[in-house]
TrEMBL record:
Signal peptide, first to last residue: none
Record's protein name: TIR domain-containing protein
Keyword DNA-binding: no
Domain TIR: start-end pairs: 19-165
Matching InterPro entries: TIR_dom, Toll_tir_struct_dom_sf
Regions crossing the membrane: none
Organism expressing this protein natively: Quercus lobata
UniProt-listed SMART domains: TIR
Top-level division of the source organism's lineage: Eukaryota
Keyword Hydrolase appears in the UniProt entry: no
Keywords per UniProt: NAD
GO biological process: signal transduction
Amino acid sequence: MASLGTERASSSSSFTPCWTYDVFLSFRGEDTRNGFADHLYFALKQKGIFTFRDDEKLERGKSISPKLLKAIEESRFAIVILSRNYASSIWCLDELAKIIKCMKETGMTILPIFYKVDPSDVQKQTGTFAEAFVKHKKENKKKVQKWRATLREVANFSGWHLQDG
């Protein structure tokens, strides 16, 4: 992936997508922002890979910001860090739904990282993933099925499984 910037500039195909970012990082801030996500972001940046990650300064609210949706659309790859509390965030779930949509429409490549969670918990939606959906059903009943399907789809991709130890 280190050569993405030069690959983008030298492509000779008739259709050359205009990527603003090489990678979009999706993560639950409270779980990974001041640890794994930061380390990954800086390692990608050091290799010359232009990476978007949300900033704590971005406007917070119930719905995902237009700036974030645009960044997803303008990214060639998405790295999704699925952590214990990822599914508890409506923001993260909406972000993931947009990432899956871009994968289907533009060919975005998605790499999931299962960070301190078992991939089967994501696939079967057990543990903290089940708890999150019980809470979401009360306020976002219409979106819950879409979010569940999205998580199952991502859990089926080959990804990295990182645990303590």
